[in-house]
Amino acid sequence: xxxxxxxxxxxxxxxxxxxxxxxxxxxxxxxxxxxxxxxxxxxxxxxxxxxxxxxxxxxxxxxxxxxxxxxxxxxxxxxxxxxxxxxxxxxxxxxxxxxxxxxxxxxxxxxxxxxxxxxxxxxxxxxxxxxxxxxxxxxxxxxxxxxxxxxxxxxxxxxxxxxxxxxxxxxxxxxxxxxxxxxxxxxxxxxxxxxxxxxxxxxxxxxxxxxxxxxxxxxxxxxxxxxxxxxxxxxxxxxxxxxxxxxxxxxxxxxxxxxxxxxxxxxxxxxxxxxxxxxxxxxxxxxxxxxxxxxxxxxx
Length: 300
Prior knowledge:
By secondary structure, this protein is mostly helical. It has helices at 10-23, 25-32, 38-57, 66-89, 95-102, 105-117, 123-140, 151-173, 179-201, 210-233, 239-245, 248-259, 266-283, 287-298. It contains 14 helices and no strands. It is globular and about 50 Å long. It is found in: Cell membrane. Keywords: Cell membrane, Membrane, Transmembrane, Transmembrane helix.
């Protein structure tokens, strides 16, 4: 089979750059969760990020529209839910394991496209989904045979579902809005949503620590950059292609975790490999399938 490699666009290169940075955040988040609850940390982190982007946008914030506020808050809720589940999961699993499991959002994106945008997945997407599911089973280890994952694993899977929703929602709402203003709205909405959940979930404000403050400031700065780039780039990069670019995240996250001392047993490496293969397979388009689709289209 032959596959043609297209020259990456500036938007695709930008997404690749923030993905490399994004992948290294799991270790920082893992450290922060030892000093703060997930809801409080996510809330403070996103509000810091919203303030940074608002300062960057300056006078452009005066033109914010109701559509940008509404769309931003919807995306922000999905963003917040994803990070809260991910942060909560990191209280129980290693940073490298969290990175690999979170990668499940990539093959999930085509399914969410189908549900939200009414665009059914390609045949190869189904193969990718199957490989990714097999990877999850391998990551779970022997317990998978009893259909029992750890509490941290389940929380991280839920985070992957929320991230998949966020990617599709950004593509749904990105057209015709100002990237800076909608970024502020989604970060502010996500941060407020997380803080409002604290009394409902019984989470308390943690004791002051320079560690969680430094982690929140660092990850807040990165969140501002990542969300700005995503909102700008996904105006022209479709969700499925953006997802394949984000596939590098678990590789970077696993590498950083390994450097920091995380143990990567054979089952973890196998599971990670299957997930990455699933991601790649979901974007492959064999020539014979393309020709068959063209033939069916031509013949009605």
